[in-house]
Write a structure and sequence with these properties.
The complex is a heterodimer. By secondary structure, chain A is an all-alpha fold. Chain A is built from six helices and no strands.
């Protein structure tokens, strides 16, 4: 007879699983499957970027001049820090230190906000210069034909990544609230681990976006 | 797989810090090498460093080092199919013959 709510923190698990461990590993496997599709989604954009860059190097060379590596480098450091604090958040939950974990999760969300703030500065500067994607472009082409193509790639790739950062911030806020509520413990932290994996993939994609857009000419 | 596979593996605090500092050093390195011109090797160096960073994130922050083989294969398959996409698109593009060719 069911007693109602499943308190997973106390080792309870859904009836179609063999054990709490199996429930945890199954959930995690689902997240890994989802993440491999994320790699493919961003990967398609990377492949398109490489091909077009090979075909029209002058467009990508000129386009890259409008980016400042300083913003990119700061944002890389911010995201790497957020990945560390996310990992530490899980580390502390595993050790039963929920308030320390909560602090780490809050720092992670703040790092996400700093990242988006810097992105906002970069975007508004480009909007000011009329560097919009595709047909909306109204800036200086500097004699490079089809320069707006670069900005179609730039906004698509950083925009899709930015949406992931915002989603990640929302998800981390959700697990932070649940951490504060005491839902998690050393034997149950599946949502935190899943959200953490997602957040690390967002960092992983930025690790490739940074040299692609800001460094390689 | 070992009988006592640790499902709830706890990575030591020190490991996380070492990985984090390595990631920061590699970021400084990638910015620095971008100022040096290695010609055609520029892109390979930049993405080589990015791949080392990505591996650190995957293995330690995402705990892939302590994961079951299935999950490693799942993640590797994502990169494998991405490589397939890239290779075949590249083969298509570089082997195209212009329409005005008399071949």
């Amino acid at each position: 007879m069911s007693t109602g709510k499943i308190i997973r923190k106390d080792g309870h698990y859904a009836h179609h699983f063999e054990s709490a461990e199996q429930e945890y590993t199954s959930s995690k496997q689902g997240v890994w499957l989802f993440l491999s599709t994320e790699i493919l989604m961003f990967g398609g954009l990377f492949v398109a970027f490489f091909i077009y860059k090979g075909m029209y190097p002058e467009i990508f060379h000129k386009g890259a001049e409008s980016l400042s590596w300083v913003y990119g480098a700061i944002n890389t450091a911010v995201l790497l820090t957020s990945s560390l604090t996310m990992a530490l958040g899980i580390h502390y939950i595993q050790k039963g230190k929920n308030s320390a974990a909560l602090t780490q999760l809050i720092i992670t969300v703040l790092c996400g906000a700093i990242f988006m703030g810097i992105k906002y500065i970069e975007y508004s500067h480009k909007f000011h210069l009329g560097l919009y994607p595709g047909q909306m472009f109204s800036g200086e082409t500097g004699g490079v034909e089809n320069l707006p193509l670069y900005f179609s790639f730039y906004y698509m790739m950083t925009g899709l990544h930015g949406i992931h950062v915002l989603l990640g911030m929302g998800l981390i806020t959700w697990v932070a609230i649940r951490t504060a509520r005491g839902d998690f413990g050393p034997k149950y932290y599946t949502p935190v681990e899943g959200v953490g994996l997602f957040w690390h993939v967002v960092d992983l994609i930025w690790i490739y976006l940074f040299p692609l857009l800001y460094l390689v000419e | 797989m070992s009988e006592h596979h640790d499902v709830y593996h706890v990575t030591p605090f020190k490991t996380y810090m070492v990985v984090f500092l390595s990631l920061l050093v590699l970021t400084v390195l990638t910015v620095w090498v971008a100022t040096v011109d290695f010609g055609a090797a520029n892109a390979f160096i930049a993405f080589g460093i990015a791949t080392v960073k990505a591996m650190l994130v995957l293995l330690y922050f995402m705990h892939l080092k302590y994961e079951v083989t299935t999950n490693r294969v799942i993640m590797a398959s994502g990169f494998f199919f991405l490589a397939l996409l890239f290779i075949f698109v590249l083969i298509d593009i570089v082997t195209r013959v212009p329409v005005e060719s008399t071949l």
